[in-house]
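Sequence design from tokenized structure. All designs in this work follow the same two-part layout: the structure record, then the generated sequence. An example of the structure record is given first.
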């Protein structure tokens, strides 16, 4: 495996401007999901929630969620949706489609994509262009190197749209099998990879992914999801485990030389 350069991004969260340049100088782009920006915890004026209800309401919503008051946050959200009339999912889908239109138009080719926990992958087929390959529980060969893709997240109290049961996630990991590069949205269940030092909380990682890494020993395991991790990389046997970075914040891809 040599002579190929792959750029990897995760947690795009609306950064269409930087995404358009993410493939520059690379043979291919790999995207590990979370294309959408629903709420921006750093800038409350950004994201679908703020677009619909304003920055002040977004600030209140973020404060409730940050304090772990999820029932109150859901109640507040329900009251706000009721002010718009019609079904909330109609307003959400309209806003999501506007973001996906911009993001997929900016997405370089060739690109290999797996969805994140905040994505709505059922809509992706309407936006994928020639040279875009959506994979989840599937394998692709890129320049003679075998890449496996496992998208989405596990169930959490946040109830993001693309969370699945542990058993379903494990089935996707098993379907991928032994690969050279394992690409997931969420990390394996290693504490240092899961702790966000800014949010000061642990995110959920996958025990199934950790077991697969120990058993099959891919050359790399790549992931995102944790925006400011305590540890950005670690080794499990011969496998180099790497958080490729918060693309919305950094605006630059992780470069993988193979």
């Amino acid at each position: 495996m040599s002579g190929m350069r792959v750029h990897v991004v995760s947690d795009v969260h609306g950064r269409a401007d930087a995404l358009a340049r993410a493939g520059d100088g690379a043979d291919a782009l790999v995207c590990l999901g979370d294309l959408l920006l629903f709420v921006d915890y750093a800038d409350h004026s950004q994201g679908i929630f703020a677009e619909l209800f304003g920055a002040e309401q977004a600030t209140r919503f973020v404060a409730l969620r940050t304090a772990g008051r999820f029932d109150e946050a859901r109640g507040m959200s329900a009251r706000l949706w009721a002010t718009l009339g019609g079904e909330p999912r109609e307003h959400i889908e309209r806003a999501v489609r506007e973001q996906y239109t911009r993001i997929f138009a900016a997405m370089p080719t060739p690109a290999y994509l797996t969805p994140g926990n905040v994505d709505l992958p059922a809509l992706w087929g309407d936006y994928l262009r020639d040279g875009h390959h959506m994979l989840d529980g599937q394998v692709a060969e890129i320049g003679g190197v075998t890449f496996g893709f496992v998208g989405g997240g596990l169930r959490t109290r946040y109830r993001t749209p693309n969370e699945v049961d542990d058993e379903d996630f494990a089935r996707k990991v098993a379907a991928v099998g032994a690969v050279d590069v394992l690409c997931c949205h969420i990390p394996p269940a290693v504490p240092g990879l899961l702790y966000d030092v800014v949010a000061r909380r642990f995110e959920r990682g996958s025990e199934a992914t950790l077991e697969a890494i120990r058993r099959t020993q891919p050359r790399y395991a790549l992931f995102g999801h944790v925006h400011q991790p305590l540890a950005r990389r670690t080794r499990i046997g011969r496998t180099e485990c790497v958080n490729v970075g918060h693309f919305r914040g950094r605006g630059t891809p992780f470069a993988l030389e193979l």
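The two ends are 5 Å apart (CA to CA). We note this feature because it recurs in several other targets discussed in the main text.
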